[in-house]
Write a structure and sequence with these properties.
The chain is mainly alpha-helical. It is built from 14 helices and no strands. The protein is globular and about 55 Å long. GO terms for molecular function: transmembrane transporter activity.
Length: 383
C-alpha cells in the first residue's frame, strides 16, 4: 500500500482541485460581470479543451515519459489558478480556462493510466485509488463553500495554488514507466477484440447516465423536492464520502477480475434500478437513501471498468486506449446532459432518471446473461 500512496494522494488532490474550482467557477465569473452567454461559453470551453486532448495525450503517454507529461500538465493546471487571480475580463479568462482545460484533460488521462500500468489488474489497489477520487470530490466543493462564507472569491484560487504546488511535489514522487515504440496499426489490431466493443458500449451507457445526473440531480432536488441550496451541497458531500468508504471493500469481492463482465452487469443492474427509482422519490430522505444504493452500484461499475481496461488492453498501449474510453465517456456525458435538458423542458425532471435507469437495466441483462456465459473462473486469456 505504501508504494501506491503517492498515486492515491495525487488522485485525491486532483479531484479536490477540479471540483472545488468547477463548482464555483460560474459564481466567480458572475462576480466579474461576465454575461450568462459568455459564462456558458467559458464553461463549455473548459470541458471541450479537456476533451480535445484525451486521445492525443493518451498516445503521447505511451510514447513519452508519463511522469514528465504529468509534471507539465499539473504545472499548467496550477498556473491557470494563478492566472485567474489576474484575469478580469472575458477574453483573458477564456484563454486561461482553455489552458486549464488542457492541463486537466492531460491529468484525467495520464494519472490513472500510469497508475494502471504500475499496478495492473489488482482490484484492491484500484479500489483505493478510486476511493481517493471520491473523497476529493466530496471535500473540494465543501471546503470551497466554507471558504467563500468568510473570504472573497479570489481566496479560492489562492488555496488552489497552494494545493496545486503540493500536488506537483507529490507527482515528483511517482514512478515512471518506460515508453514504448508503437505503430498506430497496433491500436487498430487491439480493437478487433469483441470484448473491447462491449466495454466501449458500457462506457457509452455509463456516460449517458452521468450526463443526465449532472443536469438533473440538483434540479430535481431544488424544483421537485424543494430542497434548500445548503442541503443540496451537503448531499453531494455525503455521496462522495459514501463512495470513498464503499470502494475499498468492493475491491475484495470474490471473482471481480475473473468474472469481470458478470460483476459489471450486476453493478449496472443495481445502478440502473435505483437510477429509475430516483425519479419516483417524493421526499429528500428517500432521495438520499435511493442515491446511496445507486452509487454503490456506480462504485462497483467504475471499479470493473478500470479492471477490464487493464485486462483487455496491452499495458504498452494503455494510454491511447484509455484516451479513447474517456473520450467516449465525455461525449456520452455531453449527449446525456443535452437529452436531459430537452426532456426536462417537455416532461419534467423525473423522466430522464427513469429512461436512463431502463437503458442501464437492459444492458445489464445482456452483460449478465450473454457475457457471463463466456467467462470462466480459470483463465485471464478469455479476454
Amino acid at each position: 500500500m505504501f508504494k501506491i500512496l503517492p498515486f492515491i494522494i495525487a488522485r485525491g488532490l486532483f479531484a479536490f482541485l477540479y471540483w472545488m474550482i468547477f463548482a464555483y467557477l460560474p459564481i466567480f465569473l458572475k462576480s466579474y460581470g461576465i454575461k450568462d452567454a459568455q459564462i456558458g461559453l467559458i464553461i463549455g470551453s473548459y470541458s471541450f479543451a479537456a476533451l480535445s486532448l484525451m486521445i492525443p495525450i493518451g498516445l503521447f503517454s505511451d510514447r513519452l515519459s508519463s511522469k514528465k507529461l504529468l509534471l507539465f500538465c499539473s504545472s499548467l493546471f496550477t498556473f491557470h489558478f494563478l492566472s485567474l487571480t489576474i484575469a478580469k475580463t472575458f477574453l483573458p479568462i477564456l484563454i486561461t480556462v482553455i489552458l486549464g482545460g488542457f492541463g486537466a484533460g492531460g491529468l484525467i488521462i495520464i494519472l490513472p493510466t500510469l497508475f494502471l500500468k504500475y499496478v495492473g489488474s489488482k482490484g484492491k489497489e484500484i479500489a483505493y485509488f478510486q476511493a481517493s477520487a471520491c473523497l476529493g470530490y466530496a471535500l473540494g466543493p465543501l471546503c470551497g463553500g466554507i471558504l467563500l462564507e468568510y473570504f472573497p472569491i479570489n481566496s479560492l484560487f489562492y488555496l488552489a495554488i497552494l494545493v496545486g504546488i503540493i500536488f506537483i511535489m507529490d507527482i515528483t514522487l511517482l514512478p515512471d514507466m518506460p515508453p514504448t515504440v508503437f505503430l498506430f496499426k497496433d491500436y487498430y489490431q487491439d480493437l478487433k477484440n469483441p470484448f473491447i466493443w462491449v466495454l466501449m458500449v458500457t462506457v457509452l451507457i455509463m456516460g449517458l447516465h452521468f450526463g443526465i445526473e449532472r443536469v438533473n440531480l440538483s434540479l430535481y432536488m431544488k424544483m421537485k423536492l424543494q430542497v434548500e441550496s445548503f442541503y443540496i451541497g451537503f448531499f453531494f458531500t455525503i455521496i462522495g464520502i459514501w463512495m470513498a468508504i464503499i470502494s475499498p471493500p468492493l475491491g475484495y469481492l470474490k471473482g471481480i477480475k475473473n468474472k469481470a463482465f458478470s460483476w459489471l452487469g450486476i453493478s449496472l443492474l443495481l445502478s440502473g434500478l435505483f437510477q429509475g427509482i430516483t425519479g419516483l422519490t417524493a421526499t429528500f430522505k428517500s432521495f438520499v437513501l435511493v442515491r446511496l444504493i445507486h452509487t454503490t452500484g456506480d462504485s462497483l461499475m467504475l471499479l470493473e471498468v478500470s479492471l477490464l481496461t487493464t485486462l483487455l488492453f496491452p499495458s504498452q498501449r494503455l494510454g491511447g486506449h484509455s484516451g479513447l474510453l474517456f473520450t467516449i465517456r465525455a461525449g456520452a456525458t455531453f449527449l446525456g446532459a443535452t437529452i436531459a435538458g430537452i426532456i426536462n423542458q417537455n416532461f419534467g425532471y423525473a423522466l430522464p432518471f427513469i429512461i436512463s435507469g431502463c437503458l442501464s437495466i437492459l444492458w445489464a441483462f445482456f452483460l449478465i446473461l450473454k457475457m457471463g456465459r463466456k467467462e470462466s473462473y480459470n483463465s485471464r486469456s478469455q479476454y
